[in-house]
């Protein structure tokens, strides 16, 4: 995915901001959501479509353990990125990664590239290959 990073003049901190800045559907924006497993202090990354909310109970069932949203300091420590710019690749340490099935419904998606104003595009297959993620069904509803 070299050469695909774009720096935008507007913030892309939220999926709605990114969609507006790129002129694409909010669903094409891939949110990088970092959760913490309290029992093990493990970080778990869920890549979800910008129009999808992750069901924390479904994620906990999948993991076999309670989960909580990672704090800003936890996210930065485990990924190397600040909330609002967490890239799904280039993490400072290995993080178990999942892709919510809804991401696969798009021919092209956009993900954060390490800052609130940078993004890169990929096909869902490219994103899966680059992250080594497992496809899961953890969307609300």
TrEMBL record:
<protein>
    <submittedName>
        <fullName>YbaK/EbsC family protein</fullName>
    </submittedName>
</protein>
<dbReference type="InterPro" id="IPR007214">
    <property type="entry name" value="YbaK/aa-tRNA-synth-assoc-dom"/>
</dbReference>
<dbReference type="Pfam" id="PF04073">
    <property type="entry name" value="tRNA_edit"/>
</dbReference>
<dbReference type="InterPro" id="IPR036754">
    <property type="entry name" value="YbaK/aa-tRNA-synt-asso_dom_sf"/>
</dbReference>
<feature type="domain" description="YbaK/aminoacyl-tRNA synthetase-associated">
    <location>
        <begin position="10"/>
        <end position="128"/>
    </location>
</feature>
């Amino acid at each position: 995915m070299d050469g695909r990073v774009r720096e935008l003049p507007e913030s892309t901190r939220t999926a709605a901001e990114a969609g507006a800045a790129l002129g694409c559907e909010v669903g094409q924006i891939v949110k990088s959501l970092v959760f913490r497993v309290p029992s093990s202090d493990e970080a778990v990354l869920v890549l979800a479509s910008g129009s999808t909310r992750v069901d924390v109970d479904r994620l906990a069932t999948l993991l076999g353990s309670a989960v909580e949203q990672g704090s800003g300091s936890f996210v930065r420590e485990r990924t190397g990125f600040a909330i609002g710019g967490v890239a799904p690749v280039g993490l400072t340490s290995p993080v178990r990664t999942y892709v919510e099935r809804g991401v696969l419904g798009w021919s092209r998606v956009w993900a954060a590239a390490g800052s609130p104003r940078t993004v890169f595009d990929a096909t869902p297959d490219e994103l899966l290959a680059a992250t080594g993620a497992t496809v899961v069904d953890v969307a609300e509803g």
